[in-house]
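Lab notebook, bench 4. Continuing the backlog of folding jobs that were queued last week. Each job is logged with the same field layout so the records can be merged later without manual cleanup. Today's entry covers 4-diphosphocytidyl-2-C-methyl-D-erythritol kinase, a 313-residue chain. Filled in by technician R.K.

JOB TYPE: sequence-to-structure
TARGET: 4-diphosphocytidyl-2-C-methyl-D-erythritol kinase
LENGTH: 313
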Amino acid sequence: MRSYSLIAPAKINLYLEIIGDRPDGYHELAMVLQSISLADKVDIRPIEIDTIFVQCNHAAVPNDQTNLAYRAAALMAQQFPEAMAQYGGVEITIDKQIPVAAGLAGGSTDAAAVLVGLDLLWKLGLTQGELEDLAAQIGSDIPFCIKGGTALATGRGEVLSPLVNLDNLSVVLAKYRSLAISTPWAYKTYRTQFGDTYVRKAEDLQSRRQRVHSGGIVSAIMQRDRAKIGQLLHNDLEKVALPEYPEVLQLREAFASQNVLGTMMSGSGPTVFALTESERQALEVAETVRNQLANPDLDFWTAQLSSTGITLA
Ligand SMILES: C[C@@](CO)(OP(=O)(O)O)[C@H](O)COP(=O)(O)OP(=O)(O)OC[C@H]1O[C@@H](n2ccc(N)nc2=O)[C@H](O)[C@@H]1O
Ligand SMILES: Nc1ncnc2c1ncn2[C@@H]1O[C@H](COP(=O)(O)OP(=O)(O)O)[C@@H](O)[C@H]1O
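JOB STATUS: finished
OUTPUT FIELD FOLLOWS
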């Protein structure tokens, strides 16, 4: 039986608005999610015993049942026990290129790759919608990671509307190696500080969602207006992360001082990205800010915006 090698891209958040809280304890969001070319490679190899093994070349990524890739495989085994009985278990090998705990959905995209890979390996023929429903059971960002590209995401982040592709823009990303921001902490702190601004009534929620659907950044994306996209980048979680982590604020200001289209923290951070017109400009900005901040704990990456989610390598 053949093995599958999958490319699993990271995402950035071009827009993240927290609209309200939800009865399930999560937050109601309106986001624009964007795949980038920085990606992990996920290999899926069938093995004879009915077990799931995960290995990863990054010390901070767990090899046990808490790995999101493991959780994706366990969910597939539970949903399709006859497939596991027929084809055996699976060994998942993650070549980690996406920085960990960075707000770039590294674990989510690995889990999405496992869902797509097992669908192929076990010849299940699941539809995009079926894969997304399974993905939403593991994490809010995982449904997006399957198809990727540029999408408006509402609900917990799992209700997706595709937008036009923006694949000729570049991005420079930077992150302090030793800094991690907990996603639950970021949302909880936001709720404590800004919960009084939340929309509580269903009809208000609907109109807020509608406002984002027809709002500035979505129209700028539909028109592929690069300058406007850059100006309209937004992330509510910056309101709690930047005051708490001055080094992230400093990085954000360093990018803003360059001639970039726009800059923003991605997701719950602490990665900060800046959109640029070209790969060359992204490399130049990385070099300038690296020299300016001269901090050995700071890592930089450059990438392109990408129109693809999980693909075969
Ligand atoms: C902040 C974002 C923005 O894209 O990304 P990351 O920074 O993680 O990449 C996402 O909302 C993270 O998505 P994901 O990491 O899949 O979240 P989950 O595993 O479902 O939830 C992790 C925790 O985040 C909080 N959470 C997440 C999503 C949401 N709509 N409301 C929440 O309050 C909850 O505290 C939850 O326990
Ligand atoms: N396959 C995986 N890749 C990365 N991290 C993982 C994975 N599985 C579980 N984790 C755990 O999830 C946490 C969040 O990591 P990650 O998904 O990279 O970031 P984020 O949620 O900020 O986008 C990490 O601290 C790590 O321990």
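OBSERVATION: Residues 61-62, 66-69, 94, 100-108, 110, 183, 267-268 surround adenosine-5'-diphosphate (ligand 2) (CB under 6 Å).
SIGNED: R.K.
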